[in-house]
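As a representative case, we now present a protein record of this kind.
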Amino acid sequence: MPIRPAQPADVPAMLSIYDEFVRHTAVSFEYETPTPQEFSERLRAHIAVYPWLVYEEDGAVLGYAYAGRAFERAAYAWNAEISCYLAPSARGRGVGRRLYAQIEGILRDMGVRKVFAVVTSANAPSVAFHRALGYRDAARFTDVGFKHGAWYDVLWLEKQLCPLGTPEAFPTPWR
């Protein structure tokens, strides 16, 4: 499967995938789809430190996954948050698993010890996906997001990537 680092030229395709989640689901708690400029800035900010990968098939981007800072303070530097969005034609084919395997490997190499997935209760398939990959429930915040006329919970799932130990240095940027 062709998985590669995301680049600015991928923004329209990634934004098209994400737009469906924003407009039609409570998978994303955003009410408005980001503009291409806003999405480009998100990509630029993430890839300065963390991986952002795309899955491409026959020249079309059908999915993407990225990691980012989980928390702001320096003591949290050994943690990351991970997300994945797939076009309907890429779901159920192992694309998400492969994207996650590559990102988790990059995060390990960077020195990240723990990765978190933040999933809305509207996305039961994502909860099952993460559990199947070894993520365990860490926290549940009930009725914290309101979208499309309903309240949703937010689940935090976590996965230990490396033994904790005493780090010799802060994680390094991925590139």
The beta strands are 3-5, 52-57, 60-69, 79-86, 114-120, 136-147, 150-160. The longest strand covers residues 136-147. Residues 67 and 82 are 4 Å apart (CA to CA). The two ends are 22 Å apart (CA to CA).
